Automatic annotation (TrEMBL):
<dbReference type="InterPro" id="IPR036291">
    <property type="entry name" value="NAD(P)-bd_dom_sf"/>
</dbReference>
<dbReference type="GO" id="GO:0004459">
    <property type="term" value="F:L-lactate dehydrogenase (NAD+) activity"/>
</dbReference>
<dbReference type="InterPro" id="IPR001557">
    <property type="entry name" value="L-lactate/malate_DH"/>
</dbReference>
<comment type="pathway">
    <text>Fermentation; pyruvate fermentation to lactate; (S)-lactate from pyruvate: step 1/1.</text>
</comment>
<dbReference type="InterPro" id="IPR018177">
    <property type="entry name" value="L-lactate_DH_AS"/>
</dbReference>
<protein>
    <recommendedName>
        <fullName>L-lactate dehydrogenase</fullName>
        <ecNumber>1.1.1.27</ecNumber>
    </recommendedName>
</protein>
<dbReference type="Pfam" id="PF02866">
    <property type="entry name" value="Ldh_1_C"/>
</dbReference>
<dbReference type="InterPro" id="IPR022383">
    <property type="entry name" value="Lactate/malate_DH_C"/>
</dbReference>
<comment type="similarity">
    <text>Belongs to the LDH/MDH superfamily. LDH family.</text>
</comment>
<dbReference type="InterPro" id="IPR015955">
    <property type="entry name" value="Lactate_DH/Glyco_Ohase_4_C"/>
</dbReference>
<keyword id="KW-0560">Oxidoreductase</keyword>
<feature type="domain" description="Lactate/malate dehydrogenase C-terminal">
    <location>
        <begin position="55"/>
        <end position="213"/>
    </location>
</feature>
Length: 220
């Protein structure tokens, strides 16, 4: 909690610089979900123009690990990691598909044990890099560069971004979590509402409640 409060203070102190370095008034403060929320509250900008890099990198790692298991190119493995960035992230197994075919129908499909192992590897990958190198830089840098390129080109690509999820998937709180977002020159144009199963939806709602409790404790 001390580290979070320290980062919130940093966001407050850096507001002037953040606005100066933003593209067309977009807040581009890519950090954890709570700090994205804090930035939105302090900025006064519409919610669609404040977003975080969220689980975009996690989703890319997820597709890569799935592709390794199936021996299919990552670009043809369509899967998403949503929710909180980190240990409480949600792997959307119910929506994972290859060329439109659900994973459960793909030949030599992945069993539950391998599923859990793949998700764990996604979560642990950043920790492993920090353990070996001391910090993360290249992967998240490339991910953010791709996101910024989509804004500049108004390409309407879909990214797993940390966005305000109030009103989605039964969430009533003003919290920031990662969901597939269509991104253009004016920020998040809309969120792609996935068909989550009951377990995935419950995990997402639990994350929302946990983040809301943390936000309330900050007294912004």
């Amino acid at each position: 909690m001390y580290g979070l409060i320290r980062n919130v203070i940093s966001v407050r102190n850096e507001k002037g610089r953040l606005f100066v370095t933003s593209f067309f008034g977009h807040e581009r403060y890519f950090t954890v979900d709570v700090l994205t929320y804090v930035t939105w509250k302090l900025s006064g900008l519409p919610k669609e123009r404040v977003f975080g890099s969220g689980t975009n990198l996690d989703s890319a790692r997820f597709r890569f690990l799935i592709s390794e298991q199936l021996k299919i190119a990552p670009s043809n493995c369509h899967g998403w990691i949503i929710g909180e960035h980190g240990d409480s992230s949600v792997a959307v197994w119910s929506g994972l598909n290859v060329a439109g075919v659900p994973l459960c129908e793909v030949e030599d499909a992945i069993d539950n044990v391998i599923c859990r192992d793949i998700h764990k590897k996604v979560i642990d990958s950043a920790y492993e890099i920090i353990k070996l190198k001391g910090y993360t830089s290249w992967a998240i840098g490339l991910s953010v560069a791709t996101i910024v390129n989509s804004i500049l080109r108004n390409s309407r690509n879909v990214f797993a971004l940390s966005t305000n999820v109030k009103g989605l998937h039964g969430i009533s709180e003003d919290v920031y979590l990662s969901l597939p977002c269509v991104l253009g020159c004016n920020g998040v144009t809309h969120v792609v509402k996935q068909r989550l199963n009951d377990s995935e939806k419950a995990k997402l709602q639990e994350s929302a409640r946990n983040l809301c409790a943390v936000q309330d404790s900050l007294k912004i």
